[in-house]
Amino acid sequence: KLIDRLIGLIEATDLSPFYDHKKELFSIGYDSSANALSQSHYDMLMSEARMTSFFAIAKKMVPVSHWGALSRRLSRLHSYKGPVSWTGTMFEYFMPELFLSCEKGSLGYEALRFCLHVQKNHAVKMGLPFGISESAIYSFDQDLNYQYKANGVQKIALKSHMNADVVLSPYSTYLVLPFQPHAALKNLNALKKLGTFGRFGHYEAVDFTPKRIGDSPYEMIKSYMAHHIGMSILAVNNAVNGGILQKRFLADREMRSAKELLQEKITNG
Q1: In Å, what is the CA distance from 198 to each residue of 146, 168, 190, 223?
Q2: Three-point CA angle 113, 117, 120, nearest 5°
Q3: Phi, psi at residue 6, to the nearest 5°?
């Protein structure tokens, strides 16, 4: 019964009301008070919304031209180049790959390699493990709840001042397991040595941002976020079982019909 309900929910889902046909992009949401779509859009290929775009095209909710409307602005570091995201987070690059399957040599594959290259290079300069993404930080609201923000690396971010904060999130490393397992395991061990491992696994994050930690070398965000733990478990499953979730996702006839979108090559510009 659960599976039937899930299938029914999927079939009833229609994302087209959020699609701006003029811009050929998805709006980030709907403003009920103004009775209108938000004027902000998901316009980067390297975004968590890439999964939504692929799904909507495969289900024929939006035209294939939407994929081409997503920004592929490139950045370069040393001999590597790849597309940037809005905030330069691991989440923007790697989360959709829990289900989508980028082929070697494709734009998607090179984007992941470039993201890792930049993130690792940034980490080496700071003498820290790699893995910066959106997460909770060592800042609190009036109820002493951890605050949450996008943390990234400036070299792969369009948004400015992204290097001002340094917050490492273990889930960012878990997302890398299917792609660079040895490097990911080494990094997880380095994070564990910092004290990031608690009763239920790795904590949410560790904050090295000077303006928040004072005289301490760092502060631990001792919480567990369900969606980050969930993504970590899915990444482990893909790593151990040969991308099994990607294979199951693309086993669906409609999803498989859009697979050529994942085969796009990087430009030489």
Answers
A1: 17, 16, 14, 9
A2: 135
A3: -65, -45
What is the pLDDT confidence band of residue 268, given thresholds at 50, 70 and 90?
low
Torsional sign, CA 136, 137, 138, 142: negative
**Contact predicate 177/112, CB 8 Å:** no
Taking alpha carbons only, the member of 250, 218, 2, 226 closest to residue 126 is 218
Angle (CA) 203 205 206, round 5°: 115
For 34-51, write each residue's pLDDT tens digit: 999 999 999 999 999 999
Q: Does pLDDT of 269 surpass 60?
A: no
Q: State phi, psi for 206 to the nearest 5 degrees.
A: -135, 130
- The set of residues, in sequence order, having a beta carbon less than 8 Å from that of 26 and lying 6+ positions away, is 15, 18, 19, 20, 41, 42, 49, 52, 53, 56, 62, 66
Q: Which residue has the tokens 């079982």?
A: 241
Q: For CA atoms 192, 193, 199, 205, give the dihedral sign.
A: negative
The model's pLDDT over 58-90, given as tens digits with 9 standing for 90+, comes to 999 999 999 999 999 999 998 889 999 999 999
| Report field, pTM of the whole predicted structure over 0.85 | yes
